[in-house]
């Protein structure tokens, strides 16, 4: 079967060297990278995250400069929703403080000031009363001072349940589709966001200084993990056990970054950013629970956490930054460090520092980078731990357009303050003060052939995690209460070996691409991770009117395999909550786009979920069946 799958992909599908289209959604930007998929919780894009193939080590995430806080996918209630970013590049071996599975690095395009003002606008209108707007503006204020403004805004008025006429689904009935797997009805969630990222850069003969700010506001509805029931005689009739809850995030970060070149091959740089991040919840499921009181160092009683009713609030105060010395010499040696100080609710403090040495170079036949260092973690209980961290990647260029690639990363994820002390009643997560750090190893190897116009690659992915941090329900235990089932615990270990294949071809105006990843062998693999996924696209493009008018049509898809999640139901007799582990069925996210471009102006239309697939991204979510949208992008000088 593996050989048969490889043969099919080799005969059918494309080169990954497809130029990225203009995109406002940060989640979609990341999904343009190989092996990374965008898991959308709502078709309007209100809540989305990245997943790295079939990896058991967690999700890729943004650098702290992008959203003003490290690990935004884990820490912010709406994950990547509403965050403005410049173009992203995935770095799978970059060492980090937060235990991400690789880092999405934002291209801030610092180097030389712009000659003339540059403006890039994106506006999008989608169904169900939604709009989004993006702005990237750069201009000189003085000869050596530049103003940059990044702005993203989303608006979707209210959470609604949508029903579709039967005629909408007639083509799918004709194809023999199972009626229960066609979303006659669905529920989107409200989102209103603004992310404003201005910066002023001063360019002087031997360096650069940049002062920047990030202001992020997200007012979003969310779906608790309660089940919904569907009438087996009328698939357009769906009953939801809980209404959406409300989340509100207000994040304000400001800081400065400077770099200095006392001599040409030497760079010294440093940065510091300070921020406040307030999260408020309303209309939460009505649960009552309190953690046992504890004593502080003076012997006074502290009521750690009490929650009841339908509201809750968190407040992070963070100080982030980095520094380093880099030399442009053979091997390009650099000594780098990153740090973060976090204070939660003015009571619990956590700080981390990462120090590492980096060597990298590009030769005629070899490209490589090696990072080695240590991560220091001081948690909220005033215990200090230090862990070794190493990573490396290399690409060996062989004859006949062949490349041999390999990566290795040995790192540690320390439990975060949330996992040690915060009970999340929105998407249930219960703290555990006895958590241990998660030690992880990821190794990859790829063999690629790319003569131009055709591409083929095959590789292996090995991952091992000691004491992986997961919720108890993944073991099938603790289902007697929400508190025990959703509590963070350390599993013993998890190990997996996956194989990956990607192939494609570009013929004339046509481009095709497909990638596939599947588990070959596994031991104690967490059940909340899929064993199989596909991703690909087919695109046609051409130019008319003396090459002034560009036209393109594209289909892209992601196929998500089965996985498991924790779902809350109600006993009809006792009306008490019942917890169960449910299997989320595989689904195909098929999207269509048509785009017309005149010089730097583009007009496009999209159809998301073209095949009316029933998305099952998480328990409780039931996105509406299909989304139509249109928009413009426009870039201009002066």
Q: Characterize the biggest β-sheet.
A: 22 strands, antiparallel, barrel
Structural class: mainly beta
Range of strand content: over 45%
Highest-level CATH class: Mainly Beta
Q: Which value, in Å, is the CA radius of gyration?
A: 25 Å
Number of helices: 7
Number of folding domains?
A: 1
Average pLDDT level: 89
Ends distance = 57 Å
Query: Going by CATH, what is the homologous superfamily?
Result: TonB-dependent receptor, beta-barrel domain
Helix content: under 10%
Low-confidence stretches: 1-21
**General shape:** globular
Q: Oligomeric form of this entry?
A: single chain
| Named CATH architecture | Beta Barrel
CATH fold group: Maltoporin, Chain A
**Number of E-type strands:** 39
Structure description:
Helices cover 6% and strands 56% of the residues. The protein is mainly beta and 638 residues long. The protein has one domain: TonB-dependent receptor, beta-barrel domain (Maltoporin, Chain A, Beta Barrel). β6 and β7 form a beta hairpin. The longest helix is centred in the first third of the chain and has 11 residues. Its main location: membrane.
Task: Give a quick set of tags describing it.
638 residues; mainly beta; 22-stranded antiparallel beta barrel; three-stranded mixed β-sheet; globular
Question: What is this structure, in a nutshell?
Answer:
The chain is mainly beta and 638 residues long. 6% of the residues lie in helices and 56% in strands.
Give a topology summary.
Elements: H1 2-12, H2 26-30, E1 36-40, E2 48-52, E3 61-62, H3 64-67, H4 72-75, E4 88-91, E5 103-106, E6 118-126, E7 130-142, E8 145-156, E9 160-163, H5 170-174, E10 185-188, E11 191-204, E12 207-222, E13 228-231, E14 234-240, E15 245-260, E16 266-282, E17 289-290, E18 294-295, E19 301-302, E20 306-307, E21 312-327, E22 334-344, E23 348-362, E24 366-378, E25 384-398, E26 402-413, H6 417-421, E27 438-449, E28 454-466, E29 469-471, H7 482-485, E30 488-490, E31 493-507, E32 510-523, E33 532-544, E34 549-560, E35 563-570, E36 577-584, E37 587-598, E38 601-608, E39 627-637
Parallel strand pairs: 3-5
Antiparallel strand pairs: 1-2, 4-5, 6-7, 6-39, 7-8, 8-11, 9-10, 11-12, 12-15, 13-14, 15-16, 16-21, 17-20, 18-19, 21-22, 22-23, 23-24, 24-25, 25-26, 26-27, 27-28, 28-31, 29-30, 31-32, 32-33, 33-34, 34-37, 35-36, 37-38, 38-39
């Amino acid at each position: 079967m593996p050989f048969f799958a490889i043969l099919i992909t080799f005969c059918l599908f494309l080169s990954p060297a497809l130029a990225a289209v203009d995109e406002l959604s940060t989640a979609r930007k990341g999904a343009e990278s190989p092996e990374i998929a965008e898991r959308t919780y709502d078709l309007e894009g209100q809540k989305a995250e990245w997943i790295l193939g079939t990896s058991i080590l967690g999700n890729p995430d943004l650098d702290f400069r992008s959203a003003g806080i490290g690990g935004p996918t884990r820490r912010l209630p709406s994950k990547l929703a509403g965050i403005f970013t410049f173009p992203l590049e995935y770095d799978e071996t970059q060492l980090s403080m937060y235990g991400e599975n690789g880092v999405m690095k934002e291209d801030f395009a610092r180097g030389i000031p712009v000659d003339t003002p540059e403006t890039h606008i994106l506006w999008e209108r989608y169904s169900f009363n939604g709009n989004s707007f993006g702005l990237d503006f750069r201009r000189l204020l003085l000869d050596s001072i530049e103003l940059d403004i990044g702005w993203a805004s989303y608006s979707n008025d209210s959470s609604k349940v949508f029903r579709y006429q039967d005629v909408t689904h007639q083509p799918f009935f004709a194809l023999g589709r199972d009626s229960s797997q066609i979303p006659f009805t669905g529920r989107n969630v409200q989102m209103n966001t603004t992310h404003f990222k201005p910066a002023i850069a001063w360019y002087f003969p031997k360096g650069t200084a940049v002062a920047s700010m990030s202001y992020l506001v997200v007012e979003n509805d969310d779906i608790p993990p309660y089940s919904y029931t569907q009438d087996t005689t009328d698939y357009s009739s769906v009953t939801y056990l809980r209404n959406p809850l409300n989340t509100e995030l207000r994040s304000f970060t400001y800081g400065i970054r400077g770099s200095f070149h006392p001599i040409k091959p030497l760079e010294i740089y440093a940065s510091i950013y300070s921020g406040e991040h307030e999260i408020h919840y309303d209309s939460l499921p009505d649960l009552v629970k309190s953690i046992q009181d504890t004593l502080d160092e003076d012997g006074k009683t502290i009521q750690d956490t009490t929650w009841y009713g339908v509201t809750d609030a968190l407040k992070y105060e963070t100080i982030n930054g980095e520094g380093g010395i880099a030399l442009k010499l053979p091997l390009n040696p650099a000594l780098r460090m990153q740090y973060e100080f976090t204070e939660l609710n003015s009571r619990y403090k956590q700080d981390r520092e990462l120090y590492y040495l980096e060597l990298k170079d590009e030769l005629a036949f070899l490209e490589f980078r090696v990072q080695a260092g240590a991560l220091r973690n001081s948690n909220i209980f005033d215990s200090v731990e230090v862990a070794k961290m190493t990573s490396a990647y290399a690409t060996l260029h062989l004859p006949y357009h062949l490349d041999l690639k390999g990566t290795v990363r040995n790192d540690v994820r320390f439990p975060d303050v949330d996992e040690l002390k915060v009970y999340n009643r929105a998407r249930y997560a219960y703290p555990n003060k006895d958590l241990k750090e998660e030690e992880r190893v990821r190794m990859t190897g790829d063999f690629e052939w790319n003569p131009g116009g055709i591409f083929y690659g095959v590789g292996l992915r090995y991952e091992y995690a000691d004491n992986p941090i997961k919720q108890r329900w993944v073991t099938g235990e603790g289902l007697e209460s929400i508190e025990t089932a959703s509590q963070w615990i350390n599993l013993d270990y998890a190990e997996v070996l996956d194989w990956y294949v990607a192939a494609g071809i570009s013929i004339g105006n046509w481009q095709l691409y497909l990638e596939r990843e599947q588990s070959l062998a596994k031991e104690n693999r967490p059940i909340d991770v899929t064993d199989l996924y596909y991703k690909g696209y087919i695109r046609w493009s051409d130019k008319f009117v003396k090459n002034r008018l560009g036209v393109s049509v594209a289909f892209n898809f992601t196929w998500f395999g089965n996985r498991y999640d924790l779902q809350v139901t109600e006993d009809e007799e006792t009306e008490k909550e019942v917890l169960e582990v449910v299997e989320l069925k595989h689904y195909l996210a098929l999207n269509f786009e048509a785009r017309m471009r005149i010089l730097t102006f583009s007009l496009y239309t999209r159809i998301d979920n073209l095949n009316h697939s029933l998305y099952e991204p998480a328990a409780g979510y039931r996105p509406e069946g299909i989304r139509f949208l249109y928009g413009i992008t426009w870039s201009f000088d002066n």
